[in-house]
Design goal:
alpha/beta, 16 strands
């Protein structure tokens, strides 16, 4: 073949691929040798992959026709073996091939996931692509072979880190194309989602954000893609049994061994979120029911309060109340005040107002950590019935629980069925997000620490901790009622909001 013929052939290839700028399925069908070699027996992408490529192309074209630049956001929760990594690899090849100076980042829950699963699949589809010679594939990136474009025409794999979020915050590429891929997205910290979301604001830019994975957690931003934020995402649950090429016999055994409605089958087969995560202490079902349950204030039960103090700038100080199974009739209070004297005064004002209304608080269980000590002293000096609870102290039942906090939460878990809690989504999220482990030395149930949760990008469970403090000790029912009937029946006597906010 003459040099001119080779140039003509390359020019023709560039021309044909440029026509797939908003047609990822067209590129995939054109660029890979379907039915041959490694793809023998595969006439094209799987049905769900085909549909996803079509959806992306359809939205990109609609944006172009309308002259808008809405990000294409797609979330897929799936069982195992559906070809997720292959889809993402083909998508990367299309994105890089059809838009000059395309930039992107691929991240996952672990560096191992990226290096042993996601990137080897990219290597495979790069090797199979008809235009593979356009790009260099290295251990952590794929980039243009053109040295003048290599720095800006590339997609990198970067394990997420709360210590270093610059890779996501700096993902700008105005008037070009941005691709952001979250693999095994359920385990990626909410903070990374927030940083990425804030970065994807370039105008006149094609933005494609893909989040995929097994739905292993009931909470977090991946779960939100199918819940409170589902209107922002093309979201889909993919059942492994309905996908070509999956091991149907093995899947059937998994279902038979665990049951159709088990969380194992929900997550690993159906692509549905679990009713309760494996190491999740309190189930979403119990909390959701408690939010909906009508409150019943038992006048023969003592009223106890939980006071959890803020430990940092983003945390809250929360004062909660519980009377038997009822934790929603009396209004909770939330403060972000940092001055100990001012905060102690505000807490005293709440307790005094309740006392004036003939509401008798038996005990205020106070978190002894952080700001707690000085404030507890001030409240005690003012005559309020305080009792300090040290989170890391030895549990009453030390054989079963690793520390006092773990014991309090376990008691709260056992109390939740039949209980009533404020109809508050933040409280619900905090109640179901607390995980536990079995201490390897004592086999005692131990909660993952609050510091570890914050370090992993989760919010501090201050509201849930406040309620848990009310279980620090058992208070026997009293003959003298805690609330005089007719004096203070519901939260609506003071405020329709179940939380008092400062």
């Amino acid at each position: 073949m003459s040099p001119h013929a080779e140039l003509d052939q390359e020019a023709q290839l560039e021309y044909e691929i440029s026509g797939f700028q908003r047609d990822p399925l067209g590129y995939v069908l054109f660029a890979f040798p379907w039915g041959e070699g490694e793809l023998e027996g595969h006439p094209g992408p799987r049905e769900w992959q085909r549909k996803a490529f079509e959806d992306i192309g359809r939205e990109l074209q609609a944006n172009a026709d309308l002259g808008v630049w809405d990000a294409v956001q797609m979330a897929k929760a799936s069982g195992h073996g559906i070809g997720k990594s292959a889809f993402l690899a083909m998508l990367i090849m299309w994105a890089m091939s059809t838009f000059e100076d395309c930039r992107g980042v691929v991240t996952a829950n672990t560096d191992t996931q990226l290096r042993t699963k996601t990137w080897p699949e990219v290597a495979k589809w790069h090797r199979l692509a008809i235009n593979s010679h356009w790009f260099n594939l290295e251990a952590t990136k794929i980039e243009s072979i053109d040295p003048e474009h290599a720095k800006n025409w590339r997609i990198d794999i970067i394990p997420w880190s709360l210590v270093n979020t610059e890779a996501f915050a700096g993902l700008h590429n105005e008037r070009k194309r941005i691709v952001l891929i979250f693999d095994e997205a359920s385990a990626i910290a909410d903070k990374i989602w927030e940083v990425a979301e804030g970065a994807l604001t370039d105008d006149n830019t094609e933005i494609i954000w893909m989040v995929f994975g097994n739905p292993t957690r009931q909470t977090g931003r991946f779960r939100d893609c199918f819940g409170r934020l589902k209107h922002r995402w093309h979201h889909e649950h993919i059942d492994s049994r309905n996908v070509e090429g999956t091991n149907k016999a093995q899947i059937a055994k998994l279902v038979e061994d665990n049951g159709e409605d088990s969380d194992v089958v929900r997550v690993r087969v159906k692509g549905e979120f679990p009713l309760q995560a494996e190491y999740q202490l309190i189930s979403l079902e119990h909390v959701a029911n408690a939010r909906r349950r009508e409150a019943f204030l038992d006048h023969n039960q003592p009223i106890v309060a939980g006071l959890d103090f803020a430990r940092s700038g983003s945390c809250e100080t929360v004062l909660s109340f519980r009377c038997g199974r009822d934790a929603s009739s009396l209004k909770w209070f939330v403060w972000r005040e940092r001055d100990s004297v001012i905060l102690a005064g505000k807490i005293s004002m709440v307790l005094k107002e309740l006392r004036d209304r003939k509401v008798r608080i038996h005990t205020v269980f106070c978190d002894g950590g952080g700001l707690g000590g000085p404030i507890i002293d001030m409240l005690t000096h003012a005559g309020w019935p305080t009792r300090e609870v040290i989170a890391g102290a030895k549990a009453t039942d030390a054989k079963d629980f690793g520390n006092k906090t773990s014991e309090c939460w376990a008691r709260m878990r056992d109390w939740m069925p039949g209980a009533s809690v404020p109809d508050d989504p933040e409280l619900e999220t905090q109640l179901v997000s607390r995980n536990f482990f079995w201490d390897p030395k004592t086999n005692a149930l131990t909660l993952v620490s609050k510091d570890k949760m914050i370090a992993d990008g989760e919010e501090s469970p201050d509201r849930a901790d406040s309620l848990s403090l009310t279980f620090a000790d058992f208070i026997l029912p009293e003959l003298n009622i805690g609330i005089a009937k007719g004096q203070y029946q519901t939260v609506n006597d003071l405020n329709s909001d179940p939380f008092g906010r400062d």
